[in-house]
Amino acid sequence: MLRVGLTGGIGAGKSTVADRLAEHGAVVIDADRIAREVVEPGTDGLAELVAEFGREILAPDGALDRTALAARAFADDAARSRLNAVLHPRIGARTAELMDTAPADAIVVHDVPLLVEGGLAPSYHLVVVVDADEEVRVRRLAETRGMTGDDARARIAAQASTAQRRAAADVWLDNGGDRNVVHRAVDELWNQRLVPFEENVRLRTPRAPAPPEVVPADPTWPEQAARIEPRLRAAAGDRALRIDHIGSTSVPGLPAKDVLDFQIVVRTLDDARAIAEPLGDAGFVLWSGHVVEAESGWGKVVHTGADPVRPVNLHLRPAGSPEWRQAVLFRDWLRDNPGEAATYAEVKYRLADEHAGDTDVAGYAEDKQPWIRAALGRAEDWAARTGWRVDPEDAAIGATDPASS
After folding, report:
1. Quick check: 129 and 167 in contact, CB under 8 A?
2. Which CATH class is domain 214-397?
């Protein structure tokens, strides 16, 4: 099953995208609809609301008068907390029930208006954000809900900002123009990303080997990594002592293969094996059933991302191994030494050209090792000089105080 979080500001046209995904066969779970269902006449939810806020919140026909409820429930923080205590458990239980009854090969789209505000992004394999220019949204709200311009802008301002939604978005859909345009974008998303992503997760299909291709640095690599890290942490739980964005994509300005590398430090390789299934369920598939040997003899377990559009590698290393420390040291040293990073870029481009006809990156990776081994010696000198150090459960600290990504 693939879990997709769908969100967008009021008036952005999120329902247009949800409806199109449903036409393709997605199982759409509408959070707003569930919120209405759990307080319909005759439900325990409505009875508890009446007990909390009085019969004045009921309309003459016995249904919930939402305006009357809002007047009481949003009067202060305590009242809002009482409302949430009634609604949230019921909404959560009903959502989980619908998720559980979806087919094993389903693409489940959870339509959640306040996904960003609620910090729910790590719960999904992908987050899709639907957006439109503010003036377009104001006009739509006037046409569909009869809102005044001031009311519409106030509602927009009360929700997450565009910057906050962009930070959460794996996919950004502009729905400010012709409906056919966003329909085509949804069709492409469905066929090229969601369908193969679901299949890769369900069948635990690792990413196919690919030849090395070094590309110019993408300034959004750290932002993309920041979206993925919470998903890894949610899947790995307490067995992950620390999670770092490592490798060339973690060094600003450094050309790299367009692959996000993460390192998960665990206590033992048994812990790495224990979280193989949760990581697979989260979209990070075990690359091999065997431990990859390391020079020190400690070994590591490798996973790859199942997303066909965003390549990811996970390196799970035990805390006793020297390799996990070297990976963080190498990253932080390159960040603090742009001249060394520039030299490394030249090495990478040269070797990528030499291995352009390869079917995978094994030869390219092996030929980088002499330079990297020598560079690690210089990095150790830098660490001693600057006071850089790192602990399995804490961020690296030193002269530049580099934080864990």
Report:
1. no
2. alpha beta
Mapped onto helix, strand or coil, the DSSP state of residue 357 is coil
Contact 347, 375 (CB under 8 A): no
Roughly what angle, to the nearest 10 degrees, separates helices 362-386 and 338-354?
170
Q: Does domain 2-201 have CATH number 3.40.50.300?
A: yes
Locate CATH 3.40.50.300 in the chain. Answer: 2-201
| Residue range(s) in the chain whose domain bears CATH number 3.30.460.10 | 214-397
- DSSP assignment string, 8-62: E-TTS-HHHHHHHHHHHT-EEEEHHHHHHHTTSTT-HHHHHHHHHH-GGGB-TTS
Q: What is the pTM of this model?
A: 0.89
Question: What token pair was written down for 57?
Answer: 């919140």
pLDDT in tens, the chain (405 residues): 999 999 999 999 999 999 999 999 999 999 999 999 999 999 999 999 999 999 999 999 999 998 898 888 877 889 888 998 999 999 999 999 999 999 999 999 999 999 999 999 999 999 999 999 999 999 999 988 888 888 889 889 988 999 999 999 999 999 998 999 999 999 999 999 999 999 999 999 988 888 999 999 999 999 999 999 999 999 999 999 999 999 999 999 999 999 999 999 999 999 999 999 999 999 999 987 566 766 677 889 999 999 999 999 999 999 989 999 999 999 999 999 999 999 999 999 999 999 998 988 889 999 999 999 999 999 999 999 999 999 988 866 664 443 333
Parallel, antiparallel or unpaired: strands 284-286 and 214-215: unpaired
